[in-house]
Protein 1
Amino acid sequence: MRNIIYTWPAVPFEFEKAGYKDGLRDNLIRNNPDIGPAMSRARTTFTPYELLGKIEMSADEVNLFEDYFLNILKSGKNIFEFIHPRKQVLMHWRMVEPPKPVPYLGNFWHVHVKFIQVPGGGAS
């Protein structure tokens, strides 16, 4: 059974540079046996990217985004398409944590998000 890939909702999708982090997750399992050299092996065959940052949204956009997270992404269970901000490639992602809005200016909020790439779609 294939997963349905959802598109990004009608809210901003540009990460602010302050606080933005991305990179590949550590995909090695390391151990030090009692005898012999240290060993390591791959945790999985796919090494995903992880994104952490904030997106500026109006109060209405935050409400739409929370609805998208709860009802479309089923609290992070479902996968969505999103363009990697640095690589500029469309990839498949899953939200690792619920969006966290923080008041910013007037009617605007910084919504903190954390995504992890899932296999399929785009460059890995």
Protein 2
Amino acid sequence: MKPARSTFLALCFVIGLASRTSAQTVDQQTFNEKVYAVAPLGRFPSDPRAFSGLSPRDEHDVLACREVLMGLLKSLQTGGDALQYLAPDFARQFKSAADVLASVTAPETSLMAAGISGFDFDDERTGIQLRFFMLILSEGKLVVSEEAAVLRKTGSQWRVAGFE
């Protein structure tokens, strides 16, 4: 009975140590995420009436376009399949995700964060221009870059059709 109890206590000790080490790793990751999180400090200036004329469909389309653009930017930074976010005609202009990244940022930069600063519908509501900003790490300094992306519906999906 005594060897079983000793084994049980040793096993509990090992499990406790392992979970404590795991918790410290998670806490360190959480710490890093909290320290480097971008915090909104105010609202973007906009006319309060700007959104009053949007239909639920318009709101859905703007949010869908935002998801596509943010997905593209994230995949450009992480090395994912960025071309999937592009309209076919636009995608044919690039050989790789690195070429897409080079079209919106300078060489040897890292995308750190991005956000939407405005949007406009085209006259037929078949395209949406999203104005966006990127927080970029370049040569050890943080730089803000503002760009615009035009998104068009390709089949049932919104895709980036160009940058302006």
Protein 3
Amino acid sequence: MTTPIGTAQLIKDMKDAATGILNKDVTTLRGFSERQITAIAQQSELVALGIASGQITEETREFFLDSIEDMALNFAKTLRGLLMVTIEKVWNALVGVTKSGATSAALQSHHFWWPVSLDVMRRRLS
């Protein structure tokens, strides 16, 4: 029994949709991560130099060290949020591709006559 959905094409379309989003978002995440990690490293170096030179005293040492910890935590939380957005984008793309494939297959299998093209119907249904 043949299926009205071209499974191989659907798999390819799903991979293409996910890959496109992931490639774009990973590039963005790399740039963001690089900037944040650089800033954290530079701040750590400045604090270390300040401690070594005595410009950062025992009284203020914990304050400066805590600020580095806060920077790292904020970076991790922001990265987590960005990854959640990427996951949602991939999810939405996969659902869109599968809905489009199922709708197309359903319309084609019943040989409906439509006064508009199948592409227009797909856009209206998505």
